[in-house]
Design a protein that fits this description.
Elements: H1 10-30, H2 32-50, H3 55-85, H4 91-123
Helix pairs in contact: 2-3, 3-4
Length: 124
């Protein structure tokens, strides 16, 4: 028998975190691009520690790298939804997926620009 809890019940709150972590684990194990982006995040953290970047520089990197991961997750959701509802080729679906991937690309270029701005003067 499944219990129905009120909207703000602690059990529902705990379950929502559990589902969020399950989604994150799924992305890590099934999405190669997400794993690559996690490596970029890890590499950026290591560089930040080595070059002792400022608090402001950390803020810039945390925001841009976090945004990159969020946009990649949203892209994955959009692709999954499109694949679930449209089994055969559809040009409209292709455009939606391409636009979603373009959002990731623009975010990745933004991260790259921030990494260059923060680390280029310190390395060279």
């Amino acid at each position: 028998m499944q219990h129905t809890f009120k909207r703000n019940h602690p059990v529902r709150e705990i379950n929502s975190f559990k589902y969020a972590f399950e989604g994150l684990i799924n992305a890590i194990f099934t999405e190669p691009n997400f794993r690559i982006q996690l490596l970029i995040v890890a590499f950026s953290i290591v560089l930040g520690k080595i070059y002792k970047i400022t608090q402001m520089e950390w803020s810039i990197l945390v925001l841009s790298l976090g945004l990159l991961l969020v946009v990649e997750l949203i892209n994955t959701v959009i692709e999954e939804i499109m694949d679930q509802f449209m089994k055969e080729y559809n040009n409209g679906v292709k455009i939606i997926k391409d636009l979603s991937a373009a959002a990731v690309l623009v975010t990745a270029f933004t991260v790259l620009a921030n990494l260059i701005i923060v680390f280029f003067p310190k390395i060279f």
